[in-house]
Amino acid sequence: MKNWQKVSKDELIEFIKSYPCELDIDYFMDHVSWNDFRDGRVWPESMVAMIDVTDMDCKICKDFI
Fold first, then answer.
1. How many degrees, rounded to 5, is the angle at CA 62 between CA 50 and CA 23?
2. Fewer Cβ in 10 A, N or C end of the chain?
3. What values do phi and psi take at 35, rounded to 5?
4. What is the pLDDT of residues 5-22, one digit of tens each?
C-alpha cells in the first residue's frame, strides 16, 4: 500500500519540480497523475503525484524518492 499524503496545490507543484527525475504525465477523465517509470515500474505503482481537477484534491507519494 502506497503512503499517499494530501497536500496543497502549491506543495504538489513543488514536489513535482523537485522530483529527482523527469515524470511522465497521464490524463484520465478528471485526474492528472505524474508517474515515475524508472526501474520497470508500471501503472498504478508508478504514480507519485495526482490531482483530481474537479475538486483540486492533491496527493503525493514519497515512497520512491
1. 55
2. N
3. -120, 140
4. 999 999 999 999 999 999
